[in-house]
Amino acid sequence: MSGPVGVGVIGAGVISDTYLTNLTSFPDVAVVIVGDLHTERARARAQQHGVPSWGTADDVLAHPDVQLVVNLTVPAVHVEVSAAAIAAGKHVWTEKPLGLDRESTARLLRDADAAGLRIGSAPDTLLGPGFQSAKRALLAGAIGEPLFAQASFQTQGPDLWHPGPQFLFAHGAGPLLDMGPYYVSALVSLLGPVDRVAAIGTRARRRRRIHTGPAAGEVFDVEVPTTVQLIAAFENGLQAQGQFSFDSALERHGVLEVHGTEGTLVLPDPNHFEGVIARVEPLGVLLDDERPEQPWIDVPQEGVVVGRGLGVLDMARAIAQDRSHVATGELAYHVLDVLLSAEESAAGAGFVTVRSTLDQPVPVVPSELDPFARTL
């Protein structure tokens, strides 16, 4: 493979705007077509971003210059669309989650492997300079040996801002499968594969109301728990706890901390590509009547900041360079397995053993990565 990798995008919804903004700025990628169920929406997105062609999903799969399909459809059809792309001989990058069940998702990975094709999956915030700078600091021993981690995502819910939020409260979403992939992918990248999980979940309201857009005022059903508490035990003996909620009056996003033998590492929001990274040192002697301030010691962020689409670029370069990409289908499958196991636990199964694992650690991204360099 030489020259820019030809990319076709399927799904012209809200998230396609940021993907196309970034993908059309990378010299190593050439977006040649946008497809959607509603071709007028595909046409609008294509023209907005200077993409030469538009049409249906079938038009994307049939396009001779498309080597890699970016699947931005709703979660319920992620596997179906990705499988069609594999059958058409295309590599696939898909938005999270990779699938909604283990069986069809595992089959998708097997089919891609048999065809000699690659699958990558969001979140690609894992490649951002914020997370990667923190990961390099952790590996360099900034807090000694890691012991445990904490994660939290709390919001009033996407029904307040999304014009069509129903799918975010349907099976395959909710805070666990919509936001959980960011946090669990980060934890797995830092601490390794998960061995078992336990969770509890609640559904605060059976129906929610759309607050913005043309459907504002409409009421829809809530199919999944909207607050989930999770405990994860990792294969190496480490542990983590997480909270994911669409029911919190207090907005608290992006809490991710790793605690070690010599301090705590505060990481950026795993849903963002940059942010504050800090190390907190132990106090030493602590008296009952003293609670001194614990300063946050800045950890430098190194690397070029972009956004969604960075995983597509890494995958395109990895295919051309015959190396592993970072956000692999195997990583996404393990994260999905963890989240589905948490769902099963929350339904009353107690601790659930995670069936999948990873053959190798998630790669570290070099600090000198330049998305805007021409390398192919």
TrEMBL record:
Domain Gfo/Idh/MocA-like oxidoreductase N-terminal: 6-119
InterPro entries per record: Gfo/Idh/MocA-like_OxRdtase_N (IPR000683), Gfo/Idh/MocA_oxidrdct_glycsds (IPR050463), GFO_IDH_MocA-like_dom (IPR055170), NAD(P)-bd_dom_sf (IPR036291)
Keyword Hydrolase set for record: no
UniProt entry keywords in alphabetical sequence: NAD, Oxidoreductase
Domain of life: Bacteria
Coiled-coil parts of chain: none
Every GFO/IDH/MocA-like oxidoreductase domain range: 131-265
Alphabetized Pfam families for the sequence: GFO_IDH_MocA (PF01408), GFO_IDH_MocA_C3 (PF22725)
Protein's name according to its UniProt entry: Dehydrogenase
Organism: Microbacterium trichothecenolyticum
Lineage summary: Bacteria, Bacillati, Actinomycetota, Actinomycetes, Micrococcales
